[in-house]
Amino acid sequence: xxxxxxxxxxxxxxxxxxxxxxxxxxxxxxxxxxxxxxxxxxxxxxxxxxxxxxxxxxxxxxxxxxxxxxxxxxxxxxxxxxxxxxxxxxxxxxxxxxxxxxxxxxxxxxxxxxxxxxxxxxxxxxxxxxxxxxxxxxxxxxxxxxxxxxxxxxxxxxxxxxxxxxxxxxxxxxxxxxxxxxxxxxxxxxxxxxxxxxxxxxxxxxxxxxxx
Amino acid sequence: xxxxxxxxxxxxxxxxxxxxxxxxxxxxxxxxxxxxxxxxxxxxxxxxxxxxxxxxxxxxxxxxxxxxxxxxxxxxxxxxxxxxxxxxxxxxxxxxxxxxxxxxxxxxxxxxxxxxxxxxxxxxxxxxxxxxxxxxxxxxxxxxxxxxxxxxxxxxxxxxxxxxxxxxxxxxxxxxxxxxxxxxxxxxxxxxxxxxxxxxxxxxxxxxxxxxxxxxxxxxxxxxxxxxxxxxxxxxxxxxxxxxxxxxxxxxxxxxxxxxxxxxxxxxxxxxxxxxxxxxxxxxxxxxxxxxxxxxxxx
Lengths: 212, 299
Fold this sequence. Notes:
The complex is a heterodimer.
Chain A: E1 3-8, H1 17-26, E2 36-44, E3 47-55, H2 64-68, E4 74-76, E5 82-84, H3 94-98, E6 105-106, E7 113-114, H4 120-123, H5 130-134, E8 140-144, H6 151-158, E9 163-164, E10 176-179, H7 183-186, E11 192-193, E12 198-199
Parallel strand pairs in A: 1-10
Antiparallel strand pairs in A: 1-8, 2-3, 4-5, 6-7, 9-10
Chain B: E1 12-17, H1 26-51, H2 60-81, H3 90-93, H4 100-124, H5 128-155, H6 166-187, H7 193-220, H8 226-232, H9 241-265, H10 268-291
Helix pairs in contact in B: 1-2, 1-5, 1-6, 1-10, 2-4, 4-5, 5-6, 6-7, 6-10, 7-9, 7-10, 9-10
């Protein structure tokens, strides 16, 4: 079994329901995100449009985070998910440096690395990841890439030529695909990022009750 | 940090999470800088004891003492940078051997053990033969201890600027630069002119080679990958430009010039200034090179 994700960007409307479902399901602390939706505006008025791109861990087959982790806190499980053992993590941040997708962060509460696990705990109970369940337009398609009859395999077959992964030149072999994506959505260097357009940009922690 | 934008698309990120900022900061710079001195002085001790055994015997104890101090500084900064520093022992009990961090930790442990064996041989046993026997093995272990950080940076695939084999060459050159500078400051005027000349040449050539590598990256790096070009923009008119050039001048250009002058004038005083400049500049150069790839937006 090789679990994978596909997001149909034609369908995503940027409601951020997946973000919130993820935060609630995984108790993701303030100021950190396992999954978020990036908004990129394209064009000049009046010919403008807004694109929405959900970004999460790509669960690469050749994961740099797994390779660099000194204690195997980041590890593969049998269904292909790159999982994390927070009890084992020493917080060296090597994985944060290694991930080409910026998908890993240091959890300010546990002081360990954290990231999307495709809701491995839910999958173990035969449930879909919370973001898949929350999506009102079924833009998130999840399933077994090794099974040609799975929804994700069928979707990939039907949309050949319009399927992309982020940064394929890194050789990470991501198991997270996008349909309908363009350069401005998937390449961070293809869009301008000005100051002041970050979600909760200035939200930090209070200077009491622990440190960040 | 905009390298592929087209006027036609006018693509602007209007909502995303804040960038994580600098994750590996000055603590890691201290780590690399202290390690360069700790292993570099061992390389130089080995060289001097082999080439000038009669004149350099007095460096045996101070050299190993300096190495112990700086390797422990390196270990200290390594551990305090961990967000869960009290789990450091996991590296030994749950080792993951594809990680340069694991290999480095194991090698550094062996290196420290040999340093203490050397200190024991020369300080307690007063046995120079035993010291020299341990020194050979210590030099062998000093090589991977010096290089593992380059491996770690190369494994950080998100940061295109940190490439092999350039980083490993830079680490070795940094060790020679720092080791020679420390040896120059350590030796005082006890070294003969021939030794001073050798040290000056090693310092000058290390600085020249390291500077050549930095300039090669600076000029040609951006042609390899757009991420490298975007990263180098931070030192080509960006916010780290001044710091980058301060580092380059202090670490490499000033030592090169002073080495030439000291060789011409036979001035050991100038060589000491070159050594201090190299040590300070090395910290600055390493810090800039460590930080700028982390400013790159990954998403």
